[in-house]
Amino acid sequence: MDTDELIAALAADDTPATPPHLVRRMLAGAVVSAVLMAAFWGIRPDWIAAVQTAPVLVKQTLPAVIGLFAIFMLAKGPEGRRSLWVFGAIAAAAALAWGAAMLAGGDMMGTSVSACLASIPALAIPMGVPLFLGLRHRIEPRPARTGTIAGILAGAASATIYAIHCDEDSAAFFLLWYGVAIAACGLAGRLAGGRWLGV
């Protein structure tokens, strides 16, 4: 087998990253991110009571649901990674909910937009780095797309952690700015994937 044939064979490898593999890659980073959040951002004092209300429950669980979709897509291998429309559908539903929240007089700006936009990507780094290292175990046929999903996964997990600190409970705020921050992580993942996950 010559070099060209070897590269072609590696590129055709569609062995999926198994869910346990992905979970192991994410858990250590998630612990680091959670510890950093608690140490430097702080846990919201009334979080236990607040998360029992509908807006805070949505703020806490929606990013987690997005992350679970991302894990599922990565675990299915390259074939499963073609379905980015899932994230488009979630974004469209969130946009409709955001519009309804704005019509109801929701506060879009709050007092911590800049902190939110900086914190979620920052807390995503301890999870994103080991995740990308794990995805480098083989050649990815569509590295930018895989990187996008991995970035969204890290961003969504980070938003779930950051929500334990955040006291901005307006749906108009968190649907918009959490969404922007997660999308930024996805874009960073796309750029990183195209550079480091390809042939």
Automatic annotation (TrEMBL):
| Annotated TM spans | 26-44, 56-75, 84-106, 112-135, 147-165, 171-193
Task: Work out whether the entry's keyword set contains Cell cycle.
Answer: no
Q: A Pfam family matched by this chain, by name?
A: NrsF
Query: Which InterPro entries does the entry link to?
Result: NrsF (IPR009495)
Q: Which UniProt keywords apply?
A: Membrane, Transmembrane, Transmembrane helix
- The question of whether Lyase is a record keyword is answered with no
Name by which UniProt lists this protein: DUF1109 family protein
